[in-house]
Amino acid sequence: MRILLTGGGTGGHVYPALAVATCGTADESRSVEFRYVGTSDGLERGIVAKAGLQFETVDAGAVRGRSPSAALGGLMRSARGLAQARRIIDHFRPHAVLATGGFVCVPVVLAARSRGVPSVVYLPDLRPGWAVRFLARFASAVAVSFDEVKPHIPSRRVVVTGYPVRPELMRWSREEALRKLELPEDAPVILVIGGSRGARTINNAVGHELGPLLERAWVVHATGAQNYQALDERRQLLPENLQGRYRLYPYLEDELAPAMAAATLVIARSGASVLGELPAVGVPGLLVPYPHAGAHQRLNADFLARRGVVEIVDDAAAQQGALITSALELIQSPQRLDRMARAARDLARPNAAAELFRLVAEVSSSRVGSSVERLA
User: Does domain 2-163+350-375 bear CATH number 3.40.50.2000?
Assistant: First the structure.
């Protein structure tokens, strides 16, 4: 069986596809070959290369929310991408396409439709964006993470699979993770992650209050490449004993899984990945929704907050010191953190990648428009 994967723009769109690929590769009952389609300048290229999958590129561009000239340019790039995706499909001859988000999915799913190849669109967020609503009309099935999402998808073929997380996130015990990162067992550990490209508000808030924060906790901080140097300069101004408590990275790759497992608290934006990763590891979150990402990040944060998994700090308040104040309050409240961790574990769906792979495998033998409602 051959499966074509596509998704890009953020790690939250790429990692679910790679989790499904890992699951499919481990399936000894069948031979599965995966290939990935992304854009030439997207971050997905580097992530996929590290995963060892063959990577193909197509042109694609955003249309919605752009100026007329930029929208026209996006349409032209997507038209070229459609022709490129058709050539990739003709050569690879996939049995199915799995699209996990980002505008690169549009030409790939449309090309698959034109070649009679069934596709599954996976929505990681709680509400579909324009691309997912559009592609849902052409997909054999739409997969979502939670039941609450189903009414917002313009398709009768909606399957709840859960959010597919990287298998390594569930392989670490906290004790093993602390040893791996050389962190003490008797002190709180705060993991700060700003998404694939970093988060300036979070980085600035942490940087301004490094001293008070490090006096109470050890901090593992993924800054994003653009913000790393400024935070490194701040670190060098700290007393030597506090410098050792501050573990700074431009981006967490192999260190992400142990860092998540070691964390007492995660400070992050509220992209789609938090919906799967915090429950999978069972760790509380302090989330700062990105205010310019439509309603998606706020909806994600509110969903987890209502279930007791996270607390929310608005972006403007975070810039005024509320983020660090809230973090210090939380790490001094072990019972509160324990309740949040239990609530996170209650949302976990450890078999999500296997469920999504099963759905893709099921539609792979069908033609576009066939029913997969029996899976729902």
Answer: yes
Beta-carbon count within 10 A of 290 CB = 20
Most confident of 62-66, 153-157, 290-294, 350-354: 350-354
Neighbours of 158 (CB within 10 A): 23
Q: What is the pTM of this model?
A: 0.88
State the DSSP string of 60-128: ----TTS-HHHHHHHHHHHHHHHHHHHHHHHHH--SEEEE-SSTTHHHHHHHHHHTT--EEEEE-SSS-
Residue with tokens 């789609």: 272
Q: What angle do CA 209, 281, 300 make, to 5 degrees?
A: 70
C-alpha span between 99 and 77 (Å, rounded): 18
Nearest to 85 by CA among 6, 203, 191, 181: 6
E strand map for 162-264: 189-193, 218-222, 246-249
Break the chain into its structural domains and give their ranges: 2-163+350-375, 168-346
Helix/strand/coil for 319? helix
> In CATH, what number does 168-346 get?
3.40.50.2000
